[in-house]
Description:
The structure holds two protein chains of two kinds. Helices cover 41% and strands 17% of the residues of chain A.
Amino acid sequence: xxxxxxxxxxxxxxxxxxxxxxxxxxxxxxxxxxxxxxxxxxxxxxxxxxxxxxxxxxxxxxxxxxxxxxxxxxxxxxxxxxxxxxxxxxxxxxxxxxxxxxxxxxxxxxxxxxxxxxxxxxxxxxxxxxxxxxxxxx
Amino acid sequence: xxxxxxxxxxxxxxxxxxxxxxxxxxxxxxxxxxxxxxxxxxxxxxxxxxxxxxxxxxxxxxxxxxxxxxxxxxxxxxxxxxxxxxxxxxxxxxxxxxxxxxxxxxxxxxxxxxxxxxxxxxxxxxxxxxxxxxxxxxxxxxxxxxxxxxxxxxxxxxxxxxxxxxxxxxxxxxxxxxxxxxxxxxxxxxxxxxxxxxxxxxxxxxxxxxxxxxxxxxxxxxxxxxxxxxxxxxxxxxxxxxxxxxxxxxxxxxxxxxxxxxxxxxxxxxxxxxxxxxxxxxxxxxxxxxxxxxxxxxxxxxxxxxxxxxxxxxxx
Lengths: 138, 316
C-alpha cells in the first residue's frame, strides 16, 4: 500500500548491491514505512548503470527513475561510482533538453547503514513524482 | 592553386604508404566521392573544391596498413579524437591538411536550383556558379554551406604532416558555436519535447547517421541491431526511433567532434547532431573539455576526479 494516497506510479530504482540495496534492506528490517511505487533492480555497482537503462525505462513506461550507489570514495570496487557520477550528471543535463522533466530522474548515494536516509529518499522522490503525475498519458 | 599543390604532395607521399585517401569527382560536379589512390596514374583524378564534404578520416580505424589521408579542419578533429581514444596509431597515418573556407551542402544547392540536373559547376573562393538546363545561377558559399561551416572554429587542420595551402584563421565568433542549442534551451520543456517528437518521428531508421559517423566505431556490433543484448526492436514506432537516437547520442557523449556527417547523410533532414551538441556544451561547462582538439586530453567519460569541482549533489 502506497504511503502517498493516489494511483500508484511506476518508479524504477537501480540500486548497487553493496550499499544502497543494503540500505533498503536496513530500512526494511527496521520496519520503516515507505511508499511502494518503487520497483528495485539490484545491480552490482552504480558504475554498472548505463545511462541507457534510465532512458529505456523512461521510454518504455516508467514515470521516474532513481539510481543509488555507495557514497563517493566508498565504492566496493573503489571507482565505479566516480564513473557513474559523470555519466548520470551528463544524462541529468540532457533529459530536460530533450523535453523530459529532469525531476523524474534522480541519482543519489545511500550507504548500507543509512536505513532512515533511504526511507527519506524514497518518500521524497515518490512524493515529487506524484506532484508531477504520470509521464505517459494513456 | 591548392589542388595542384595537393596532387604534388600526394605524389610525394604515395611511395611510403599503402593508399592515399582523397576526393574525386562523382557522377556530376555536385557529387564528390572518396578515392583510395594506390598508383601514380590515379593522382590526376583528385579534386579539391567546396563540394568535398566527406570526412575521410572515418576510414582510418579500419585501415591495417600505413595510409595517408586528406583532411579539412573539421575532419582533423576526428583524427585527434581517434588518438585520444587509442583507435589509431599515429605512426601509421600521414595527414595531409587542407585549409578550408567552407563547403557546400548538396541538399541546399539542390533546393536553390529546384533539383534540376547539374551540368557544370565553377568554384571560386567564396561562391559557386551552377549551370543547369534552365540557365546559370551564382550561389554564395555562405548561403549554401552546412550549419557547421557558419560557426567553423578550425578552418585549418589542428594536426597535419603537410599543409596543401596557407593556414587560415577562423573569423567566426567562438560564442556562436552553440547558439542553436542555446536557442532551444530558451524554450519551455513542452516546446522542446514537441520539437524533438516532430523531428525524430520523421526517422526511417536507415542508420545512415550511424554509418557515416566517424566516432561510431562498433561497426557490426552496434547495439541498435544486435539481438543480444536486445535494446531495441524492429517496430517502426516513435519510441523505438527515439531510443535509437538516444543510443547514438549517449554513446557519443563527450566524443562527438561535430563534423556534421550525420546531418549531411540524413535523408529525412533530421537535426541529428542537436543532442550531441548539447552534450558537448555541457562537457565544456562541466569538465572544460572540447572533443578532438588536444591529442593529450582524455574523453571525460573515460576518466574521473575524486572531487568533481562542478558536479553538485542533487537535492530532492
